TrEMBL record:
SUPFAM superfamilies: 4Fe-4S ferredoxins, NagB/RpiA/CoA transferase-like
Domain (Lactate utilization protein B C-terminal): residue spans on this chain: 403-472
Name the UniProt record assigns to this protein: Iron-sulfur cluster-binding protein
Species: Actinoplanes cyaneus
Signal sequence coordinates: none
GO biological process, one term: lactate metabolic process
Entry keyword Repeat: yes
GO function term, MF aspect, one: metal ion binding
Length: 472
């Protein structure tokens, strides 16, 4: 075994979807010019926020549930090796096989080899952030294996040769007329008279997917939760396609991030109340599928669980940033973020967009590989308020900004500012200096820190607070 928890290796370069081709400011600038994208995002996020807010308001103990979820996740992080070993033992006892993958390369190799052993040239997939993170589809295609996404939004993204832009709704950036064009161009056997009426589009996808379900012997899934106590895996979803994948094929391969483990069955009581309300604005998930190993004569007769690190141990090693691993992938932070609502997910360059992506992706890859993401926020705090497990995303963003590389001029300016502000008399003289406004230029345009590219410096008041106070 090559994986050891606490060995803080980051996700490898050259594989996976955690690093963008350009910094966030450049990508965001292009996204902001797309009016249709902004309209799509505004409509979708506003709708989800409204639904979520209404069902959350129904629970008088919502804040207590958030605290319970946060406490369970903190407990998991404090004894992750123990819980993973317990999960492995329980899965093995029930006829499953557990594989440990240090990174994306190992995970892709393991899954590809397992599929090859079945002789299958096609697999069906349940929506999975972990398999997107490691670019499993690309690895399978390179090996001559066709992956078919069965989640409707993921299918739209796949057929359009696109990338997901939202954790929960990957095709949130597409409207129904765009989806119609994608289906006409790329979906086998689609009716040329297809309209953009949502029920008609859904029916076309259902027909295509049902044929695929019934003729494919291998499925690949992620997992929302893995229960250490029993070895049970759980997937929650809204469409039922995931359940078809999890029950019909002969072989099931699940790729699960190591942080998804929970200690006991009772813990699901908390998360199955938090997750649907925070994500889709539903009181409960329409489909919650659980399985434990292999049951003779019922469901897949070969089950493999791949436990994925891929930088998670590096996150765990950072005491100030490890709570990013508490994330249950609900996307609530995306739906309230003013930055995400205007730029969309592609600007983040990672499969994890929005506020949680701005803290998780840099930690998984090493901050230097995603140095702009911690700055993709106004620090308004809406993400913290919305997070169902109370991840303090603004504090982690500030922590990562301190770790990000800074230019020589900026470091010198910050040292000078810190020296001045640490000495009250010197600071008072600097405030009174008549030259300050001329040095800064109009609204800060003379400052050499890059801040003027994104915001204006407030007008310098005629009277400082110290002078105002002294005059009274």
């Amino acid at each position: 075994m090559t994986t050891f928890l606490g060995m803080p290796a980051t996700a490898p370069r050259g594989v996976g979807h955690l690093r963008g081709d350009e910094p966030f400011p450049a990508a965001a600038h292009k996204a902001l010019a797309n009016d249709q994208l902004r309209r799509n995002l505004r409509h979708a996020t506003t709708t989800i926020r409204g639904k979520s807010g209404r069902v959350i308001a129904e629970l008088p103990d919502w804040q207590e549930l958030r605290s319970a979820g946060s406490a369970i996740k903190a407990d998991v992080m404090s004894r992750l090796p123990e819980l993973l070993e317990q999960l492995e033992a329980r899965v093995t006892e029930r006829g499953g096989v557990v594989h440990w993958a240090a990174d994306a390369n190992e995970a892709n190799a393991i899954v590809t080899d397992l599929v090859r052993q079945t002789g299958s040239e096609r697999v069906i997939k349940v929506k999975s952030m972990a398999t997107q993170e490691i670019a499993l589809n690309e690895a399978l295609e390179a090996a001559g294996i066709q992956p078919v996404e069965t989640d409707l939004a993921e299918l739209i993204v796949q057929l359009g040769n696109d990338k997901p832009s939202h954790i929960l709704v990957p095709a949130i950036h597409r409207n129904r007329s765009e989806i119609r064009e994608i289906f006409l161009a790329a979906m086998p056997g689609v009716d040329p008279a297809l309209t953009d009426d949502p029920p008609v589009l859904a029916a076309a996808a259902r027909k295509y997917l049902r044929e695929t379900f019934l003729s494919t012997k291998v499925a690949i899934s992620g997992a929302n939760f893995g229960i250490a106590e029993t070895g049970t895996l759980a997937v929650v979803e809204s469409e039922g396609n995931g359940r078809m994948c999890l029950t019909l094929p002969e072989t099931l391969i699940t790729v699960m991030g190591i942080e998804k483990v929970v200690p006991a069955w009772q813990d699901l009581e908390v998360f199955l109340q938090l997750l649907p309300r925070a994500s889709t604005g539903e009181r409960m998930n329409p489909y919650t599928t659980m399985w434990t190993g292999v049951t003779p004569g019922d469901g897949p007769q070969n089950f493999h669980l791949v436990l994925l690190d891929n930088g998670r141990s590096a996150v765990l090693a950072d005491e100030a940033g490890r709570s990013a691993l508490h994330c249950i992938r609900c996307s609530a932070c995306l739906n309230v973020c003013p930055v995400y609502e205007r730029t969309g997910g592609h600007a983040y360059g990672s499969v994890y967009p929005g506020p949680i992506g701005a803290v998780l992706s840099p930690q998984l890859t090493g901050v230097e590989d995603n140095a702009s993401l911690p700055f993709a926020s106004s620090l308004c705090g809406a993400c913290f308020d919305a997070c169902p497990v109370k991840i303090d995303i603004p504090s982690i963003l500030v922590h990562l900004r301190n770790r990000a590389p800074h230019g020589r001029i900026e470091r010198a300016a910050m040292r000078a500012a810190a020296y001045t502000m640490d000495r009250p008399k010197l600071y008072a003289r600097a405030q009174r200096a008549a030259k300050l406004a001329r040095i800064a230029g109009r609204r800060g345009r003379g400052l050499p820190l890059g801040w003027n590219e994104a915001r204006d410096l407030p007008e310098i008041p005629e009277q400082t607070f110290r002078d105002w106070w002294a005059s009274r």
